[in-house]
Design brief:
By secondary structure, this protein is mainly alpha-helical. It has one domain. The chain is 80% helix and 0% strand. Helix 1 crosses helix 2 and helix 2 packs across helix 3. The protein starts with a helix and ends with a helix. Bound molecules: zinc ion. The site of zinc ion has 6 residues, from helix 1 and helix 3.
């Protein structure tokens, strides 16, 4: 069984997960409320990033800053 920290890293948006990893996440979330909340937060960030990315897709400087900010937020959440 994976730890909360490992699950949090798998929950970071934008990565490709294997079927096994997705099953592991689902199993973990069944009994871990803490990670469930974290998953919701990461989903919200992922969606916000997508919107922002579309808005600034012609502005690489803004887009880059957005990516940096998102990485910082995600690192804070999963650490
Ligand atoms: Zn957990």
């Amino acid at each position: 069984m994976r730890s909360c920290k490992e699950i949090a890293q798998l929950l970071v948006p934008g990565q490709k997960l294997s079927l096994m990893q997705r099953v592991e996440i689902k199993m973990h979330l069944l009994f871990c409320k803490c990670c469930g909340n974290q998953q919701k937060q990461l989903e919200i960030i992922g969606r916000a990033l997508q919107r922002y990315d579309q808005q600034f897709k012609n502005d690489s400087k803004q887009s880059e800053r957005c990516q940096e900010l998102t990485e910082t937020i995600i690192k804070k959440i999963i650490s």
